[in-house]
Amino acid sequence: MRAMILDAPGEPLRAAEVPVPEAGAGQVLLRVRACAVCRTDLHVVDGELPEPRLPLIPGHQIVGTVEEIGGGVGGIAVGDRIGVPWLGWTDGECRYCLSGRENLCENARFTGYQIDGGYAEYAVADHRFCFPIPEGYPDLQAAPLLCAGLIGHRSLRFTGEAERLGLYGFGASAHIIAQVAVHQGRRVFAFTSPHDTEAQDFARDLGAEWAGSSEEAPPEELDAAIIFAPVGALVPAALGVVARGGTVVCAGIHMSDIPSFSYDLLWGERSVRSVANLTRQDGHEFLALAPEVPVRTEVVPFALEKANEALGALRGGRIRGAAVLVVDPSRESLQGQVDR
Ligand SMILES: [Zn+2]
Ligand SMILES: [Zn+2]
Questions:
Q1: pLDDT digits over 292-335, tens only?
Q2: Which residue in 65, 226, 312, 329 has its CB near the most CB atoms, within 10 A?
Q3: Rounded to whole angstroms, how far apart are CA atoms 49 and 216?
Q4: Is the pTM of this model over 0.90?
Q5: How far away, in angstroms, is 96 Cα from ligand 1 center?
Q6: Residues with CB under 5 A from ligand 2 (ion)
Q7: What is the CA(212)–ligand 1 centre distance, in A?
Q8: Which of 16, 41, 45 lies closest to 111, judged by CA?
């Protein structure tokens, strides 16, 4: 099969022909249709996350159809269209797993990090961690729901009943979560890099009532903020604009150092927290919610072999919505969409 392979962090991915993997016990073999590109992929490729499996096939927002089923797999049939998220395996027996917090499992393995992912024509996955894809979403539009959507949704949940919601970094996650937040009757304030007026226009198109630079103050105090950009300096910036009792949620897996700041910014029962990974319950909840909103994902398609270009465009902030690798362009629904 064709695959894009990480041999060593810091190097570009290498296009290669490798054997199709086999579905072991409890696993399914998927024919990959599309795989969305996540900022976490960048952190893995750039060496900002420790000890990835090497060589590695990245990618953890996989939409595919089941080609083969390993022993002991129930509830999934050949031909089903399913999604594979970041959480690829847990031990099911640590104190976190046993208390409904499998996202924090001490022995968790992650797709496209410790397990080969979806930057390839085929992938195997533990069937217990796969999700059915909601009907009505084409492969390309479904793929970003699997991490940008899921993690965004988990982050949004941690803002509680916040009415005035700030979103820092208007990329794949924020463009999905803005739609959910507006649907829930919240007011969205979007912060982008200074001068990124394109992203600010995009945010307003999706229902943000205000969009501006992260260096600006919003027109009023906020009740909560979610930081999607991997920039530690945004933590004190966001604390500075949330009201008493407000929460700042850090949604990314990696962030530059947070500069020291005055306790005044935290005082008044403000809180800062991170969001780590996902539980399967998050996945089922969000994939049921997305068609109700309905969330419409905006995607920028790239051919599989252009994965390095897709990562480069994401790194450079040049993606409106989500970058998605189109792995099987032979299907009619995808033809004519891949121009890169
Ligand atoms: Zn565990
Ligand atoms: Zn991700």
A1: 999 999 999 999 999 999 999 999 999 999 999 999 766 544 44
A2: 226
A3: 31
A4: yes
A5: 6
A6: 38, 40, 147
A7: 41
A8: 41
